[in-house]
Structures are given as C-alpha cells and as structure tokens.
Amino acid sequence: xxxxxxxxxxxxxxxxxxxxxxxxxxxxxxxxxxxxxxxxxxxxxxxxxxxxxxxxxxxxxxxxxxxxxxxxxxxxxxxxxxxxxxxxxxxxxxxxxxxxxxxxxxxxxxxxxxxxxxxxxxxxxxxxxxxxxxxxxxxxxxxxxxxxxxxxxxxxxxxxxxxxxxxxxxxxxxxxxxx
Length: 179
Hints:
By secondary structure, the protein is α+β, with helices and mostly antiparallel strands.
C-alpha cells in the first residue's frame, strides 16, 4: 500500500478563443481580478485546426493562454470551470453585437511537471469525473524531455508553438517548487 501524501499546488492555465481580441482581453482581465498577476501570456494563435466551433462562434477564431503566478490546489479545478463558464455567459450577454451565439470559449486547466490537465463538462472514454458535473483529461504529458500527445489530444495542442509555451510554464513551475 502506498502512503497518501499531500499534493503540491499546481500552475493554473487558462485558454480562451473567440473571433475578437476584445473577448481575449475580457478573459485576461477576469483572470487578473480573480487570481492576480499573470506569469505568462502566450502569443495570440490562429485557431484554425477545426471548423467544429464555427456554427456557434463564427470563423477567424483567435486563441490565447495565460498562466497565473499564484499556484492553486488542483482540487479547485471544478469550481474554476464553473466560474469560467459564468464568465462566458456574462460576456455573451454583454456582447450580443458580435452576432454569434458564443463569442468566447474559456478552458481552464492546470499544469504539473508531468502533464497538462483540462477541465470539461463533456464525458468521454478518456476523461475522469471530478465533481459538480466537471470532468478532466490529460491533454498532453511530458515524457523524455518533451511534450507528448495522445489519440484524443486536440489538434491545436499538438503544435510546437503550444508545446513551447507550456514548456515555459513548466520551467516556471519547477522554479516555484525549488523556491
């Protein structure tokens, strides 16, 4: 039998995409209001690996990630996902002029030294139930000094650009653990 040990806090990472940069600015400001200083901000990426979201979000989508400086307890992921869902609803209510049903999509998760875990409301064979209607999946994992993907990894998370950003985040987390 293994010993049960307390787990280290982890790096909160939030990704968002929409067809306007103002939607990304909104998410960033909400993150800062809720959790404080942002340690890393990714470039704005073109989110064009799929057309799945076009009916509800339109085309020409842009995506960005933020990593929060203050570490979090991984048990908080379900309540964080509920909060970001509320932000999506609030933004949609205030921005009906964008002429899309869903002007922003917000995906919170956390990063450990070994993996990036994303929260979702959708159950699939590779996702584990957490609490309060929220599931989680290991989207990418770190093995042999590089990020690895699985059969379910979203196409955008398979790109070298994302892996570079998450490597910077991982290095930051490791530095936090050393201090």
